[in-house]
Amino acid sequence: MSALAQVPPPTTASSSTSRMSSSSKSVELTEITEVRRDPSNNTSTTHKYMKGKMLGKGGFAKVYWVQSLDTNKAYAIKIVPKANLVKSRARQKLQAEIKIHRVLKHRRIVEYKHFFEDRTNCYILLELCHNQSMNELIKRRKRLTEPEVLYYMMQLIDGTTYMHNNNVIHRDLKLGNLFLDRNMGIKIGDLGLATKLTHSNERKRTICGTPNYIAPEIIDGKGGHSFQVDIWSMGVIMYTLLVGKPPYEAKDVKSTYKRILANVYTFPDHVSISEPAKNLIRSMLQSKPELRPTLAEVQSHPFFTGPDVRIPISLPQSSTLEAPRWRINSRNEIVVDTSSKSKSSTSSRQPLREKTNDARPSSSSSKQATKPSAALDSNKENVPTGRVTRSRAKAAAAETGDKIEEKKSSKWAFKIYDDYINSKEDKKKDKNVEKRKEEATGGDADVDELTAKTAAFTLSGGGASTASSSSRRSSAGSVIDNDMFALETMHQRLSQSFSKSAPPSAEAPSPDEGATKWVTRYVDYTSKYGLGFLLNDGSAGVYFNDSTKIVLDPEGKTFQYIERKRTSGSEKRGEHVSETHTLEEYPSTLQKKVILLKHFRNYLSEQHKRSEEKESKGKTASSAVPVVEAKVSTEKGKGENLVYLKKWVRTRHAILFRLSNRSVQVVFFDHTEVLLSCEARSVTYVDKERNRKTYELGEVMGGGRPDVKKRLKYTKDILHQLITGAKR
Q: What residue spans carry the Basic and acidic residues bias annotation (predicted)?
């Protein structure tokens, strides 16, 4: 056992699956196994975590989203390769971080869970913050209003005061280390540069920090430094929140240090900042540490205590995207104004939550129906009017808030901090209830849970309608009946096949009975936009969070956009209508969605290409984010209507895709697949070795393929719950 394991309770870890990162060439784990040993009775327990996307990285560590497979709770995990700990100084630094962080227990500090290690890595399990860091907040918002700065600074003072009272100096306070929980509260994180003083008068001399936030006495290094360096960093943070950029930012680090040492900064004329705010910033950004106010003096400054000052009690999640409008209520409190029409139309622009990766199924439609397309187009004023040509689309893309550049689409970084785990995953499970559910369902307990989760799971919307009147539905009701009929037919066929009275058939399935279209790769990016998919014929599309869909043909020239529109005399939910456009020319209202379509397609195509190259060399395919792959066909799309992803739902063991051609694909997380057509007379099965074969149902039920039969039973139960939920 290494010295690192002597700080927290000694545990070890291992990986059952690994992937090679295409950028860093380092091994990326997809499942982490921790072995916790109890020295008192010489026993051990095993705990597994499924690792998701990377949340951030530093000089010698990376932070990932992980989910405990024991409790389904989500965490952040800091992974430090032991190759980076060869030098004793690096090991001591990590030991110090763990020793300091594990004893700090405060609502404004990211909670330390525990530490474990294996032969190659050290792991620090941490509390997961769901609304990213304040660095991403400023990138989206540019700058904040003064009530918001009051709200955040009070919380920062609260957490920093706790650390200083425990003789801890953070030494790296910056926007990137201030995280936002699901209640929009600050959590101070990353104590990698923190130090604990043996007494309050001790001075530290290590040169450390982040250039834009580093105090002048750290750069100078002659007299040492103490708690006042955190006060300086807080002054930089407050300035940055109000102005939109750090006060000493320059073209390079050396120039930045010169400006810090000379204390050269100004308040821009184009930004309205109150005099109390400027005065407080000036007091914190004094070159001489002894002249800076204490935290108590900062808290009692007129910026916080003035007669007209009102600090918000809370902030809405919509403030992550746009500035709140303030009003004074009857209790003389400052609150967000939601009464105006313009505000009510935009207050729903909250961060779109990604599908939870826990064991609970989630509907792709019912929960997201309240998230309008405005969330995808929060920079609408930048979109040109009229029809968009390729050159104008590029120009508009450069102006959008997300700064997505088309030329870099193949390297699009999916780095949104995980705000996609909702509060339900924090609830503890009743083991006795789970056991009874498993007994009732033959081991697939999560199937019964689909009913409550999919009560509003709509089955409306048949194949996409085109300009041809013959392909349109006269009313939404007939569409609903058709889709319901398709699922009911599948379920009925499967139920009959499982019935003892159904005789097995020796007839081999026709080659045309197997599935012709299926999802080969998908990426779940519903934390912000939606789920992207790539089909076996080369077409690609996106199921957006506002339930609209878009699909691009295999040639990459023509796309269809599908949305639900209410028509006179139609049912409440309306009917699905399709528009066909080319990438050269399309309505300006679709500009951002088309850009996203290109990014999703290029990303998934690039991942597929890399996968094929590595498979040809006998290597495991890799991916920068969780991407699921199936065996690919080179078959090209046929017919006018493109097949697209119509609905999807995630369960504990699988993800179910319902395509517009009324076929169903179930991708199990053990890398097997089941594909059913509308009639469900045969089943296409993909085994773990990626072999694809179509079977007649009687052959499967006759005992020839128990592995396929087991998955068909699971599929049947899912279909039953979806149909039941839709009819409620």
A: 427-440
Q: Are 545 and 377 in contact (CB under 8 A)?
A: no
Does 423 share its domain with 508?
yes
117-127 residue pLDDT tens: 999 999 999 99
Q: Model-level pTM?
A: 0.49
Which of 319, 337, 370 lies at the terminal end of a domain, its last residue?
Answer: 319
The three-state secondary structure class of 300 is coil
Give pLDDT tens digits for 49-78: 999 888 888 778 999 999 999 998 999 999
Query: Are 543 and 431 in contact, with CB atoms under 8 Å apart?
Result: no
Structure tokens at 281: 């910033």
> How far is 61 from 210, CA to CA, in rounded Å?
16
Contact between 192 and 209 (Cβ < 8 Å): no
Cβ partners under 8 Å of residue 257, min gap 6: 211, 214, 219
Q: Which residue has the tokens 């108590």?
A: 296
Give the separation between CA 275 and CA 272, rounded to whole angstroms.
10
Residues 388/597, Cβ–Cβ less than 8 Å: no
DSSP-derived secondary structure letter, 6: G
Say if residue 241 is in the same domain as residue 260.
yes
- Hey, what amino acid is at 538? G
**Which residues, at least 6 apart from 389, have a Cβ–Cβ distance to it below 8 Å?**
584, 585
- DSSP label at 614? H
* Rounded-to-integer distance, Cα 517 and Cα 527, Å: 27
Among 685, 686, 676, smallest CA distance to 718 is for 676
Please report which confidence band the pLDDT of residue 513 belongs to, taking 50, 70 and 90 as the band edges: low
CA dihedral angle for residue 254, residue 256, residue 257, residue 262, rounded to 10 degrees: 130
Which range is least confidently modeled, 72-86, 542-556, 568-582?
568-582
- The total number of residues shown for the chain amounts to 728
Tokens representing residue 59 in the block: 């000089």
Domain that holds residue 257: 134-319
* Number of other CB atoms surrounding residue 532 within 10 Å: 26
* Co-location of 272 and 295 in the same domain: yes
Mean pLDDT of 387-406: 38
CB atoms within 10 A of CB 92: 12
Q: Rounded distance, CA 445 to CA 717, Å?
A: 11
Q: For residues 94 and 78, what is the distance between their CA atoms, to the nearest angstrom?
A: 11
Please name which of 459, 364, 439, 424 lies closest in space to residue 722, comparing C-alpha atoms: 459
Q: Is 666 helix (H, G, I), strand (E, B) or coil?
A: strand
Q: How many CA atoms lie within 13 A of 727 on its CB side?
A: 12
168 DSSP 8-state letter: E
Going 701 to 705 to 710 to 715, the CA torsion angle's sign is negative
Q: How many CB atoms lie within 10 A of CB 134?
A: 23
Q: Would you please indicate which residues are annotated as catalytic (active-site) residues?
A: 172
3-class DSSP assignment, residue 263: coil
Helix 146-165 / helix 228-243 crossing angle, nearest 10 deg:
170
Specify which residues 525 forms β-bridges with. Answer: 530
Bridge partners, 387 (sequence order): 587
The two most distant CA atoms of the chain are separated, in Å, by 90
560 near 550, Cβ under 8 Å? Answer: yes
- Answer for the pair 234, 173: CB distance below 8 angstroms, yes or no: yes
441, 717 in Cβ contact below 8 A? Answer: yes
Q: Where do we find the tokens 């409306």?
A: 460
CA 166 from chain center: how many Å?
34
Assess whether 432 and 506 both reside in one domain. yes
Three-state secondary structure call for residue 110: coil
* Residue 352 forms part of a structural domain: no
Give pLDDT tens digits for 450-464: 333 332 233 333 333
Check the annotation: does 646 bind a ligand.
Answer: no
How much is the pLDDT for 566?
Answer: 60
Q: Is the dihedral of CA 81, 87, 88, 94 positive or negative?
A: negative
Q: Are residues 172 and 305 in the same domain?
A: yes
